[in-house]
Amino acid sequence: MDFQGQKISELVSMVLLIITGFVSFTVGYTKEDFALFIKLFLAGTAITCAITVPDWPFYNKLELQWQPSINDKGSPPSSKAPTAALKKKR
User: Domain boundaries in the chain?
Assistant: First the structure.
């Protein structure tokens, strides 16, 4: 997940949890049923987690550009021998 996706995920989770809390409290208060309030709030929290926790594709819109790796000699690895940079020292 990129940084912009993390920001969107956090915003979506906060909005959904606020809406869930308001709706579950209102329904529980009007029905005078605390168990219903808890069930609705837990269901809303589970739905919020299902939307915001996994790394969905719409959270990865910006591709991160990484720096090229540097081998032992201090220069970027050549494209001719990519396995040479992967060998471990013993």
Answer: 1-53
